[in-house]
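Hi, here's the filled form for the chain we discussed.

Project: internal
Contact: R.S.
Residues: 159
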Amino acid sequence: MDGLSTLITGLVVMFVIYWSVYFINSGIKISRIKKSGIKDIDKMSGANFEFYLAQLYKSRGYSVKITPGSGDYGADLLITNNKEYRAIQAKRYSKPVGVRAVQEVIAAKIYYECNAGTVISNNNYTKNAIKMANKTGIELIGRNELMSMIIEMKNTKAG
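And the returned structure, exactly as it came back:
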């Protein structure tokens, strides 16, 4: 019976440790979401999201041009910094972003003669979008990376 007691005690301790780590990690994720303000971005219009991203990139030292709402050839923003000239396709979506967004920024990169292209979203990406981006050298910035950029911007402003 002594061995059984030790086994049960060990299992209870493991259970408590597991759930403690789980709740701590959950708390960190919730804190990160609140600090980034990503929930506010989830409610923005597409145009407001583009404007927000323009401010975000300006805070990172880029010159930013917002393209016209229609006839933008697949780029919502054109950013420059030193020798970098980048086309950005912004997607504020409630579902994962598909391959079409990658195709759009590839076209924009060619049209505007940029040396780089990025799709940035408040969501994540489909497997096909990731596959095409990897094959064509397009950068994908998803929800987690966007939250990191926002937190970095807020910390820079605060500091």
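Let me know if anything looks off before we file it.
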